[in-house]
């Protein structure tokens, strides 16, 4: 993906001014929703290192294998609770659309986030629907 392409997170901003600086470590997420969007974008562009690095050390897996044949096609933020600057935790409910081979699908999750060392991290989530 080029930095001038629209960001996969659905913000409407170019990737190079939206999630790419977070992926490169040039900036950090200021809210739980911003981290959630940047993680979705990382999945969409195949940057699993970023996904792993932004997963809370207490809950992250040892490794993240790529999902062969899976293409992320869109993100919808359904709800947020807390997760603003100054908060210590937050939740983001989202629907992430994907295609696996010819079949479309939707991942509907309510994710939990926490601040550690002044950075937002993904903790875990509940699959909905």
From TrEMBL:
InterPro entries: NTF2-like_dom_sf, SEC_C_motif, YchJ-like, YchJ-like_M. Residues 31-125 form the YchJ-like middle NTF2-like domain. Transmembrane segments: none annotated. Pfam families: SEC-C, YchJ_M-like. Belongs to the UPF0225 family. This is UPF0225 protein MAIC_45090. It comes from Mycolicibacterium aichiense.
